[in-house]
Each structure stands twice: as C-alpha cells, then as structure tokens.
Design a protein that fits this description.
By secondary structure, this protein is α+β, with helices and mostly antiparallel strands. It has seven helices and ten strands. A six-stranded antiparallel sheet has the order 1-10-9-8-5-4, with helices on one face. Strands 2-3 form a two-stranded antiparallel sheet. α2 runs parallel beside α7 and α4 runs antiparallel to α5.
Length: 223
C-alpha cells in the first residue's frame, strides 16, 4: 500500500488489483465508452448510478459517519509510547535537531531555518541511526513502535469495522448484482483493491453489463 494512501487515504480491500493489467481494461472497455474520466466523473458530473452499477470519484473529504473513528480517537486519547520506545527516541532526536513536535507525535514541523534538502539529510541520518540501533527495517522508519502500544491497538481494532453505509468506505465502483466493489486512491486503479477475488474475464463481463445498462438508460445503442 502506498504511504500516502496508508496515512491519508481510505482505499482498502481484501484483494489488491494489478494496476498495469486491470486499468487498461477498465478504461478501454468501460470509462471511454460511458463518457467518463479516470477520476470517476461521468458526462461531466460527479459520478453516475443506475440499477446495475455505481461509479464515484475518490472523495478527498470523506469522513467516518458510523462512529468508529470516534472510538479509535477515544482509545488513543490517554495513551503514549513508553519512553524507551523507538517512537519516543525518534521524537527526542528530531527535537534535538530543531524539529517542533507534539509529544504524541501527531503534530510535527521541521526546522524553519533549514531548506528541504538539508533537513531531509538530517532526518535520513536519524532514521539510519535508530533503525540500526533497534535492528529494524528502513521500511516504516517513521512509524516503528517497539513498546507494544501499536500492537495493542492492532489487537483491539482487528474485530471492528465501519458500518456498510459509512461514507468513509463507500466504493468507487460498485456492481450491484453481485456486490463487487473496487476502491482506489486518487484516480482509477491507483493503489486499488477489490472485495471479491474475480479474474479479468469475469471483470470484463461485469463491465459489458454496466455499459449496456448505461446506454439503456440513455435510450441509445451500445457503441
């Protein structure tokens, strides 16, 4: 999963999609045939829905409407990593080099008197130093936890899900007949996931049905 999607996005699903293959099929056999674009705008409008399918652009302003995010915030409210945790040492190292950081790590500002290139080099040295000390991979170097707090959260949250009508988890593409869904990050098939493990031929049949339904509603023949 892309780091941006992991932190800021909401594209999730059981089965990651091979973008190189599926994106071309989606565009050539669906998007271009219904006068849509790669973001999910159809006929210049924000999305489209009929009795067979629904397609919607990535929603930058989507928020949880079912209450799960509030529960998560409540869980984290009075919790901090232990003082000897990688996370806390990372915060101390950055503060020592001029960063302004909230003790929770949620608010961070790099030194204002440094240009991007300079503080990036310092930050890289800090990551290398701490990953070596704790014998950790550079992957995830900004979020490693060695005190068990993150593991406790993962255990607590693993059986909790957003409600099906929560705005945060509404799919970008939905085939209503089978409930097949696709969620993507920013635009169609970037870091995308589907909820059913179907093959490309099955996907093509779904797209054909969607295109037919689009033109049936428009009172036109399929192009």
């Amino acid at each position: 999963m892309e780091m941006g999607n992991m932190i800021f996005g909401h594209s999730r699903g059981n089965y990651p999609i091979d973008r190189d293959t599926w994106q071309n099929v989606f565009f050539n056999e669906f998007i271009y045939k219904i006068n849509a674009d790669g973001y999910g705008f159809v006929d210049g409008e924000r999305g489209y829905e009929n009795d067979i399918f629904k397609v919607m652009p990535y929603d930058w302003n989507s928020e949880c409407t079912c209450g799960l995010e509030d529960l998560i915030d409540d869980w984290w409210e009075d919790k901090l990593h232990k003082s000897d945790c990688y996370q806390m040492e990372l915060i101390r190292e950055k503060i020592k080099h001029g960063w302004t950081i909230d003790i929770s790590g949620s608010i961070e500002h790099p030194p204002q008197n440094m240009n991007f290139e300079k503080y990036s080099k310092i930050e890289d040295k800090i990551y290398k130093k701490l990953c070596k000390k704790y014998n950790l991979s550079r992957a995830g170097c900004a979020v490693h936890c060695t005190c068990g707090l993150d593991a406790s959260f993962e255990e607590w949250v693993k059986d909790k899900e957003h409600k099906s009508d929560c705005r945060l988890i509404q799919p970008n593409f939905l085939y209503k007949s089978t409930g097949f869904q696709i969620m993507w990050y920013k635009y169609a098939f970037r870091d995308s996931y589907m909820n059913q493990d179907i093959n490309l031929d099955e996907f093509r049949e779904i797209l054909k049905d969607c295109v037919r339904s689009y033109y049936d509603n428009k009172g036109k023949e399929v192009k």
